[in-house]
Amino acid sequence: MPVVCLGLNHKSAPLAVRERVVFSAERLDPALAALAARPGVREAAVVSTCNRTEIYAVLAPEATPAILRRWLESEQALAGDELAAHLYSLEGREAIHHLLRVASGLDSLVLGEPQILGQAKLAYHSAARAGLLGQILQRLFQHAFSVAKRVRTETDIGAHPVSVAYAAVTLARQIFGQLEACQGLLIGAGEMIELTARHFHEQGLRGLVVANRSLERAQRVAGFCDGHGIGLDALEDQVARADIIVACTGSDTPVLTRETLKRVFKSRRHQPLFMVDLGVPRDIEPSVETLPDVYLYTVDDLRGVIEQSRRSRAAAADDAEAIIENQTDAFMDWMRTLNAVGAIRRYRQHAERQRDEALAQARRQLAAGHTPEAVIEQLGHRLTRKLLHTPTMGLREAAREGDARVIRDSHRLLGLDDDEERDTDE
C-alpha cells in the first residue's frame, strides 16, 4: 500500500488554473466526506493553498491515482482535459519525499516560507475529521511536521522574514521608496493579511486600514499595527484614499471589480494605485490592470522578488535537503516494517501461549508439593524446548532441501554470530 500524491502547484500550473482547483476551508470538509465515500480510498488528506492543491492518499491494491483525479474533477466541476497537462502523480518514496519538502517550505514559491506548515496541519486535522487518517498517513504527517521543525531549527532556511506577504511589501518599497507617506488598505483578515500588516507596520507605513466581512476580525488584525478595521460595506471609500492595496480573502468571487475602480478613480486625479492580489481564487478582477494609473500584481508576478531570497537561502536549502533525504529513508524503513507486523504479532502470540501453558503446569507442580528449585528448572527446560521447536524444525527442513539462503538468513534473524559458530566447529 504505497503512499500516492496527485496534485498541481505553482510550477506545474498557472494562477488561472490553480484558482479553479483550490478548496476553501468551508468546502474542504464536505469534499473530503465525498472522497471518503469513494471505493478504493483507504486514507487521504488534501493540502490546498494559493500555490498548490495536492491529494495524499493510501489506496486499495486494485485502485489507481485516477480515482483521485476523477474526484478532483467532480468536486471542482472541471473537465479532464483542463487538468491533465498540469497534474503530477507521485508514488512511494517520491510522494513521501515530496510531502517532507512541502512541509519544510522547500517546494514553496518563497523558499523556506513558514506558512505552508500551518496549512499542512490544517489538512491533517481536516482529514482526521473526515475519518481519513489511518496508520500510514497519520504517521507520515506527524513525521513531516517533525522534519519541518528540524529544518527550521537546524538550518538557516528561516533566518530572514521571507514570505509572499514579505515579497509584496518589498515590491511596494521598491516602487514607492520610503513608505512613511503611503496609505495602505488590506482586504481580508487571515494569516497572510496579518503577516502583511506586520511587515508594513515595520516599514513605517503612514496609515493602515483592514477591511473584512467580519468587522471584529478586521479590527483584531488592525490592532496589531496601530491601524483600524472596517467592514466591506465601507471598502469603496477607503479604496479612494489608498496608495497600496493588498487583498487575500477566501472569497470565490472578486471583492474588487473594474467597475468599482472606475467609479473610485473619478476622484483620485490620476494618483497611482499599487495593488497586490494574493488571493486564489483572485480577489481583484484581472481586467482592473487595464485601467490607467493602476499597477496590479498577482502571486505569480512576485517571482522576481522571491528569486532574490531564494539565492540567498541556497546554502541553507542544501542543508535542509540533506535532512529530508535522511528522514525520507527513515520513514521508508518504517513502512517496510509494516510488512512484518502480522508475522511478528502471530509469533509473539504463539510464544505467549507457550509461556502461559508452561506457567500453568509449573503452578500445578508447586501445588502438588514439588520443590521450587525443581519446578523452576523444569520450567526453563520446557520453555526452551517449546520456543525452539518451530525454528529448529524449519532449519532442518531447509537443510534437507539444500536451501542455503534460509540457513544463511537465519543467522541474521536469530542474532547468531558466524565467528562464534566457526570457533565451536573447530
From TrEMBL:
Site positions per UniProt: Important for activity: 98
UniProt domain Glutamyl-tRNA reductase N-terminal: residue ranges: 6-155
Domain (Quinate/shikimate 5-dehydrogenase/glutamyl-tRNA reductase) ranges: 171-305
Function: Catalyzes the NADPH-dependent reduction of glutamyl-tRNA(Glu) to glutamate 1-semialdehyde (GSA).
GO molecular function: glutamyl-tRNA reductase activity; NADP binding
InterPro entries noted in UniProt: 4pyrrol_synth_GluRdtase, 4pyrrol_synth_GluRdtase_dimer, 4pyrrol_synth_GluRdtase_N, GluRdtase_dimer_dom_sf, GluRdtase_N_sf, NAD(P)-bd_dom_sf, Shikm_DH/Glu-tRNA_Rdtase
Superkingdom to which the source organism belongs: Bacteria
The protein, known as: Glutamyl-tRNA reductase
UniProt-listed Gene3D superfamilies: Glutamyl-tRNA reductase, N-terminal domain, NAD(P)-binding Rossmann-like Domain
Gene behind this protein: hemA
Note: During catalysis, the active site Cys acts as a nucleophile attacking the alpha-carbonyl group of tRNA-bound glutamate with the formation of a thioester intermediate between enzyme and glutamate, and the concomitant release of tRNA(Glu). The thioester intermediate is finally reduced by direct hydride transfer from NADPH, to form the product GSA.
Pathway entry: Porphyrin-containing compound metabolism; protoporphyrin-IX biosynthesis; 5-aminolevulinate from L-glutamyl-tRNA(Glu): step 1/2
Subunit description: Homodimer.
Record remark on domains: Possesses an unusual extended V-shaped dimeric structure with each monomer consisting of three distinct domains arranged along a curved 'spinal' alpha-helix. The N-terminal catalytic domain specifically recognizes the glutamate moiety of the substrate. The second domain is the NADPH-binding domain, and the third C-terminal domain is responsible for dimerization.
Entry EC no(s): 1.2.1.70
Lineage summary: Bacteria, Pseudomonadati, Pseudomonadota, Gammaproteobacteria, Chromatiales
Coiled-coil region(s): none
